[in-house]
């Protein structure tokens, strides 16, 4: 069947969800389908079976397609470390650090890896569904583009343009995109889709007709708002909601400036007995929290400074005095120790930073990144997940490991109220999550994996109801 690309009129218009739903719809039709995103920018990464890393959205799309994730599904991943610099991951491996102003010069070399990965997927699957990044209307980036029309033209992949009506101005989004892009790029677009509509669809019939008349592009359908999207793992930090659930166990998590892999908390948020508060900058950690989770981060020392700027360290100490508990995951675990040493500047400027001092451990950053899937036991239950971090952590509290995967992982304070682990995804396992909640007097009532599968099926059915899926797939080449 070939390939089809979903581009968007902007960031966060629902491209990732559309591709995931289309992957599941294809799978339900018996089509051998795979997702692909040439370039992604996210600190929410997933580890592939071969020890590489890709964007979390592509891992979800792979699941929707019934596949294990592969580094070739997202050959270029940018992981922001500061407002102006990012780590560049190529085919699963960290390849460089680049300032935003210098990244354009790398793109010519990166296109080769992008096309190589795409060719591998295309050779192995009947259909490849490609997700763009940002918007093709960012014409200032077009000259060296590898994420949108630069890729579509180089790989000769037809494009469907998705606009988000929920944010307003969707007519201008789509018509304006055609107005500013190169005519040869516009010729790659085979139609448009309106996403995230609320209310009576007939009220926008005239708007859809106007877009089709102005652009000459076929109207491929209108997708109503899909509320269950909130039950799927999110990749972009802009998707983080401040409060989830209304259960009796209150879990709080500070929204660090470089927060990473925050989908670790999704299974907890889905539990009926849990209330999760994502605490934005400028707000105190809630005084009634039972558990504070310090999440992963792409910049441990930088976000530790950010945490202190918000006064969250003071809130954390007060939380412990009230009898609360603390769990640090990956970078959050490193923050809990006495010191974070980075003499060679692998995670920022060279130097050492005092940690929060809540665990008797110290972390030393190293150039090699640990990327591995892991499984073992914790709290007497099976646990599995993945590690994706730089640095090694040692100290007396490591004598009380958080888990064995199978080697000892993490550390626990003598009183058991502060713990840290390098294991991401640990709450996805039902048995471990139930044992963890039991410590707080809460019961688990959730089969998390089955829930995600059910939502993907409902998403596919939602798209099948409102789009002509066969017509869409027929556009692939």
Automatic annotation (TrEMBL):
One GO MF term on file is: catalytic activity
Please state every residue range assigned to the domain named CobB/CobQ-like glutamine amidotransferase. Answer: 251-431
Instruction: State the SUPFAM superfamilies in the record.
Output: Class I glutamine amidotransferase-like (SSF52317), P-loop containing nucleoside triphosphate hydrolases (SSF52540)
Question: What is this protein's gene name?
Answer: cobQ
Domain CobQ/CobB/MinD/ParA nucleotide binding stretches: 4-235
Locate the transmembrane regions by residue number.
none
Which PROSITE patterns does this one have?
GATASE_COBBQ (PS51274)
This protein is called what?
Answer: Cobyric acid synthase
The record's comment on protein family reads: Belongs to the CobB/CobQ family. CobQ subfamily.
Q: Which organism is it from?
A: Paracoccus pantotrophus
Short name of one Pfam family: CbiA
């Amino acid at each position: 069947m070939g390939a089809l690309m979903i581009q968007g009129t902007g960031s966060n218009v629902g491209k990732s969800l559309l591709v995931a739903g289309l992957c599941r719809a294809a799978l339900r039709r018996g089509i051998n389908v795979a997702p692909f995103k040439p370039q992604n920018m996210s600190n929410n990464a997933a580890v592939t079976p071969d020890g590489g890393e890709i964007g979390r959205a592509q891992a979800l799309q792979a699941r929707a397609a019934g596949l294990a994730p592969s580094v070739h599904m997202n050959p270029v991943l940018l992981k922001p470390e500061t407002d102006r610099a990012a780590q560049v991951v190529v085919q699963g491996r960290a390849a460089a650090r680049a300032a935003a102003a210098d990244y354009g010069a790398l793109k010519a070399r990166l296109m080769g890896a992008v096309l190589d990965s795409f060719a591998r997927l295309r050779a192995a699957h009947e259909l490849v569904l490609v997700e763009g990044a940002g918007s093709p209307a960012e014409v200032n980036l077009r000259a060296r583009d590898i994420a949108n029309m630069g890729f579509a033209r180089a790989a000769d992949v037809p494009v469907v343009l998705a606009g988000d009506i929920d944010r307003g101005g969707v007519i201008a989004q789509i018509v304006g995109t055609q107005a500013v892009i190169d005519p040869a790029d516009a010729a790659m677009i085979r139609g448009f889709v309106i996403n995230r509509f609320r209310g009576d669809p007939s009220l926008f019939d005239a708007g859809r007709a106007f877009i089709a008349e102005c652009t000459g592009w076929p109207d491929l359908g209108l997708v109503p708002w899909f509320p269950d999207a909130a039950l799927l793992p999110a990749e972009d930090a802009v998707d983080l909601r401040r409060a989830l659930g209304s259960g009796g166990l209150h879990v709080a998590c500070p929204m660090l400036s470089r927060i990473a892999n925050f989908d670790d908390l999704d299974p907890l948020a889905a539990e009926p007995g849990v209330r999760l508060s994502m605490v934005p900058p400028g707000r105190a950690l809630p005084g009634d929290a039972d558990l504070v989770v310090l999440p992963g981060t792409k910049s441990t020392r930088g976000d530790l400074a950010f945490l202190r700027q918000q006064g969250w360290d003071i809130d954390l100490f007060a939380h412990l005095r009230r009898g609360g508990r603390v769990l640090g995951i990956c970078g959050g675990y490193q923050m809990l120790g006495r010191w974070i040493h980075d003499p060679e500047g692998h995670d920022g400027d060279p130097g050492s930073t005092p940690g929060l001092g809540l665990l008797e451990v110290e972390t030393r950053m190293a150039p090699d990144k640990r990327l591995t899937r892991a499984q073992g036991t914790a709290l007497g239950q099976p646990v599995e997940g993945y590690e994706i971090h730089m640095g090694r952590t040692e100290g007396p509290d490591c004598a009380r490991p958080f888990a064995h995967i199978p080697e000892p992982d993490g550390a626990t304070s003598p009183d058991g109220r502060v713990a840290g682990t390098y294991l991401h995804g640990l709450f996805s396992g039902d048995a471990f999550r139930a044992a963890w909640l039991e410590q707080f007097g809460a019961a688990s009532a959730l089969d998390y994996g089955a829930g995600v599968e059910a939502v993907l099926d409902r998403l596919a059915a939602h798209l099948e109801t409102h789009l002509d899926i066969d017509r869409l797939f027929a556009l692939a080449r």
